[in-house]
């Protein structure tokens, strides 16, 4: 269970970093790009997701669902 939580947190961090990088004129473009790359590698090579596109899709959907149901806060 803890490992799944780590994976979910990594995907959340990836999403947050991607959104920050996509914003107009991000504050620290280089740091955000490096962080996004590091998180992407971690997600890509995770043994629970590696070579399993359906698992990747399910993880992203899980993050979207939890983000939309968690109100402002």
What's this entry about, in short?
75% of the residues lie in helices and 0% in strands. The chain is mostly helical and 73 residues long.
Strand percentage lies at under 5%
* Secondary structure tally: strands: 0
Helix content: over 70%
Please give the largest β-sheet: none
Number of helices: 3
- What form results from the Cα inertia axes? globular
- The whole-angstrom Rg is 13 Å
Give structural notes.
- Helix content is 75%, strand content 0%.
- The protein is mainly α.
- It is globular and about 35 Å long.
Topology of this protein?
Elements: H1 2-22, H2 29-45, H3 53-69
Helix pairs in contact: 1-2, 1-3
Summary keywords:
mainly alpha
